[in-house]
Design brief:
alpha/beta; Rossmann fold; five-stranded mixed beta sheet
């Protein structure tokens, strides 16, 4: 199948960018012919092209595609006429690029929360497909986690959040690791595989779960009024927290260094590493998620009357 992927910019390692890389890799592995359209190329699109996963194309060099797997309304308007069917994925609630464009053949929300907002606010019926994670890249070769939390990794983007996690690690007597807040550090899995607990939001925690780590939902982002979190993820609360994409919006808890350290100390369990890995393999594996997209695409193509002219 000839497939077009889109993402507005590909110059930093945000959630939709790393999603695009993962889905391009899996589509290539499955034998599909893949092109990538972006308005702002950069380190991620360069890597995709260098690895031979997809060809990066501009508006003037767009071909005609069986399926457009589209991120962002900015891309949809440019490429929609070049695709027999279009599937628009909505990744968030606050970025204007995530406002659903009219006219897609199908809509995907990456969480129950997004699906419900699409229906309630936009009267759009959407299917939920959770973020897909490369469970091989974020998988084999990781170190067993310790019986007690000895290494804390911050994946937080906000300076205040990173500082708070650093203070909490000190209270726990744990080593503190940090990932570059500018979102340009590629091999984040190597740090994840050293950590006992990973702190952050969204996709980064899905990847950490695939690495067999304990995870704690917390950060401060530009669209937040303050640093917020859902706290420690356990087998008993994971599905509720997942409904809002590990965003901090489920419980909206605020933490101090002391309360964050206490929370980690109270709920940390080395057994969660294996449990989280198994959960990721079952619910977040990019192989399964791409399979869901392609099954939907095949159904849409059967009904499509859009032919190349």
């Amino acid at each position: 199948m000839k497939i077009l992927l889109t993402n507005t910019h590909m110059f930093q390692l945000g959630g939709s960018e790393t999603y695009t890389y993962a889905i391009a890799k899996e589509l290539y592995t499955c034998g599909h012919e893949v092109d990538l359209f972006t308005l702002a190329p950069g380190m991620v699109s360069d890597r995709i092209e260098l690895e031979g996963l997809a060809k990066v194309v501009g508006g003037a060099s767009l071909s005609f595609y069986d399926v457009g797997l589209i991120n962002h309304n900015t891309c949809f308007e440019v490429v929609k006429s070049h695709c027999a069917v279009t599937i628009l994925t909505i990744h968030g609630l606050f970025d204007k690029r995530e406002i659903p464009a009219e006219g897609a053949d199908a809509y995907i929300g990456i969480s129950d929360e997004i699906r419900d907002v699409l229906m309630g606010k936009h009267r759009i019926k959407a299917k939920v497909i959770l973020n897909g994670v490369d469970c091989e890249r974020f998988g084999g070769g990781f170190l067993p986690i310790h019986a007690k939390p000895r290494v804390i990794l911050s994946m937080c983007q906000g300076y205040n959040a990173r500082r708070l996690v650093w203070d909490a690690a000190g209270l726990l007597g744990a080593e503190y690791l940090d990932v570059d807040g500018s979102q340009t550090e590629w091999a984040v899995q190597e740090k994840m595989k050293q950590a006992d607990v990973v702190v952050g939001l969204g996709r980064s925690l899905y990847e950490a779960m695939a690495c067999g780590r304990n995870v704690f939902v917390y950060d401060c982002r530009m669209y937040m009024r303050s640093c917020l979190g859902d706290g420690f993820v356990t087998p008993w609360n994971i599905r509720r927290i997942q409904e809002t994409n590990f965003s901090g919006r489920r419980f909206r808890a605020q933490f101090t260094p002391t309360t964050l350290a206490d929370h980690i100390q109270r709920y940390y369990d080395e057994a969660y590493g294996k449990i989280n890995r198994e959960y990721a393999l079952k619910n977040l594996n990019i192989k399964n998620q791409v399979g869901k997209y392609m099954a939907l695409a095949e159904k849409l193509l059967e009904k499509s009357t859009h032919v190349q002219t």
